[in-house]
């Protein structure tokens, strides 16, 4: 309905514009030498006006969808730019605009006395544009010098207000940005419950969209994982009040199609940390200089320390990749590779730890049977 209404309005605007063009052409014709050779009757003049007006009405009718799309895009661009401008600059810029227009009004009174070929009117128009731009520019850049007391009060009030908001929300630390993998994993909910992670917990909107796509997947395993992630997210939202961050105004993210790259860029914009258990994302973030909280690193750090030379009793359950190797697991899921243990598969034996390999992907223990 709004699209049709806008199209009708633009069509009428085209009719009015066309009639204005007709009047302008008529004025030029009257002032030129062709006025004596081309003589139109009132009926012909009326028909010419209708044709010119109708022509521009049709043009505006056809171009209405394009004008609407471009108008929406320009409006969003202006809105995004204004959101990034501090309120004190908008305030001082408005004062500068008004001051510039007032000065331009007085100057135009002098310029309007020039009656030669509309030069006075043209100069007045340029004066208004120039003084408005100059007023906004000077006031925005030098506002703190022009109105120091008022601006300082504004900044002080804004600072107190922002600090109070952050205090009320409990934002005493860097914002933590969760990725899809850590939500599906689910351990982050238990970590939040313990209170070890401080600050604002953020779920970017594009992560929520990716999680929904996983939950709608035709693959049964992916669909179950996605639904589990949504359940965990709903639980965290109720218990901890996490924030769904709308990234629509972050135009810097639009050029990146990959979710992982968007996460890193958003963390750089917000000065936050990415919470993940994705090994590759962890490495890329480190290269980009973004701090990462890896859930797997935390889990590995909490596992019991095993040192080379320690003895333990294990049940070997399957063959290893290499010859004569056997595999066993601790209660926490840590894999133990036992050299020369193939013949003991299915038995409970004592082993001696030879080495421990620790990575972000997990921990692996190497051992050999006790002789």
Number of separate strands:
11
Q: Could you describe the largest sheet, including whether it forms a barrel?
A: 6 strands, mixed
Distance between the termini: 85 Å
Q: Which structural class do the helices and strands define?
A: alpha/beta
Number of helices: 13
Dominant shape: elongated
The stretches of 5 or more residues where confidence is low (pLDDT under 50) are 148-172
User: What is the H-and-E element order?
Assistant: HHHHHHEHHEHHEHEHEHEEEEEE
According to CATH, the fold-level topology of the largest domain is Rossmann fold
What is the CATH superfamily classification of the largest domain?
5'-nuclease
**Which class of the largest domain in CATH terms?**
Alpha Beta
Strand arrangement across the biggest beta sheet? 6-10-11-9-8-7
How many discrete domains? 4
Q: Percent of residues in beta strands? A: 5-15%
- What is the level-2 CATH architecture name of the largest domain? 3-Layer(aba) Sandwich
* Average residue pLDDT: 78
How would you describe what is shown here?
It contains 13 helices and eleven strands. By secondary structure, the protein is of the alpha/beta class. It folds into four domains: 1-84, no CATH class; 87-169, no CATH class; 173-300, Rossmann fold (3-Layer(aba) Sandwich), CATH 3.40.50; 305-369, OB fold (Dihydrolipoamide Acetyltransferase, E2P). Strands 6-10-11-9-8-7 form a six-stranded mixed beta sheet. Helix 12 (279-288) links the parallel strand 4 (273-276) and strand 5 (292-294). The longest helix has 42 residues, at 42-83. Mean pLDDT is 78; it is low at 148-172.
